[in-house]
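Quick note —
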Amino acid sequence: MTTPDHHRTAISWRNAAVTIGDRRIFSNVDLDVPIGAFVAVLGPNGVGKSTLVNTILGLRDLAHGTIAVFGERPDVARPMVGFLPQRHHFDASARISGRDLVRLGLDGDRFGMPVPFAAKFSSRERAARAQVEAVLEQVGATAYADRAIGACSGGEQQRLLIAQALVRRPRLLVLDEPLDSLDLPNQAAVAELIANISRDHGVTVVLVAHDVNPILAHLSQVIYLAHGGALAGPPADVITSENLSALYDTPVDVLTTSTGRLVVVGQPDAHGGHHHGGHG
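Predicted structure written out below.
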């Protein structure tokens, strides 16, 4: 078993196992996520992708083994992590502005919104407002930041939610199916945004994906979960018939279409076919 280099590794699991009740989710997992990597967590329904994310966030303890985030326990490293959970649905009547939604990511752990008068011109308040403005610009959401969130399109809402996750300037950004429910153009746009954040700002990204194809060109690594185990590496090295057949312990075929889309067929998924990425 190798020892992780925490100067180069954002997340390390060693001999990690998670059980929920009497059900084993995964075990004997040894994985490293390099600092600055853009990583997708893939696999069929029910294999533990969100559970793996919860171990990063310190929301799910390991049954045995270890996990380190930037060399620290997950609970200690939590301030260095930005998190976007599975997609929110904002009703059209939601009146909070995009700007205020992002601001909640900065100080939403306090009671209420920022005081508009007494603290308006304090150095702390000016710094907070500048930080919100910077992240709105970073995600390309300045033009509609003052619009009610319920009046924003799905792609606009997702950019604002990503801004909320980024506003504390995390070193690690964890996103749970951020492309789900978006149409194809918005999937491509949001995938490009996340890739730019990782590349231009050195943010490590771990993204749970329902379908790998919108992000495939941007990925440096994938983590593929199935059958209680995991594989990790570059997409072309991991998503192969040989690897997935060994992971599932049954024949699995990986096909590449004329457009470069990966299609995984033949795996034992009770929820149906799993075109890659398929069901998340």
